[in-house]
Amino acid sequence: MSLNELLHYLRLGGVTLAILLLASVVALGVAIERLIALWGVSERSRTLGETVQKHLLRGDVAAARTAAERSDAVAADIFLAGFDRMERVKLNGGGVESAVERERAQVGLKLRRNLWVLATIGSITPFVGLFGTVAGIMKSFKDLGLDVDAGGTGGTAAVMTGISEALVATAVGILVAVQAMVFYNYFQARLSRVLVELRLMGDEFVELLKERPTPPAPAAPAPEATARGDASHA
User: Fold this and answer.
1) Distances in whole angstroms, Cα of residue 124 to Cα of each of 24, 106, 189
2) 71-82, pLDDT tens digit by residue?
């Protein structure tokens, strides 16, 4: 299709085609934004999870918390929620599991942000295109009626030309819907995998908090050393 033909169809499409093209641009923008937001999410979270795990296996909760505070991974919010709850558990009697699960759900909502736009575009653009086609066909038949009343001879050829041009709206609507749904399904599959990894990290984190070794208490001074110290002061 040449540039002149493309411009011709754009002019014929009118408002309907403009809406469809705008929806296509919006879908592409959302896809790019989500790609940037999700870039390296699994890798950063996995690296932080391994670091926190090493510290907790040694019983060093302070170092594990510091690592989470310094990280920009999404898993850091989950770990910090668990650490905060652990500090209050002695007073409030709550559970770390519920705090970790709530924060994981919040992280999931953040990761899914704007995906509803892709789903909406994918579901409504075929109908928008169909509306444009129906409107174009109605206009073609109206023009045919006016032509007949005026004694014209355009007849069926004019109607067929108008209908073929009106079908462009349906074709564009389907293409935009396919584009949006491909993006949506890709992100849904990717986020499903990421959320499963975060759930596993959260479960392992809770288990390590419960099973972490208790740091050894400082040794008390020997009675002989205490007695000698008292004697020297005397």
Assistant:
1) 12, 28, 22
2) 889 999 999 998
Tokens of 161: 């030309």
Q: What single letter denotes the amino acid at residue 10? A: L
pLDDT in tens, 190-216: 999 999 999 999 999 888 887 765 555
The model's pTM: 0.75
Q: Where are the domains of the chain?
A: 3-211
Structure tokens at 214: 């208790």
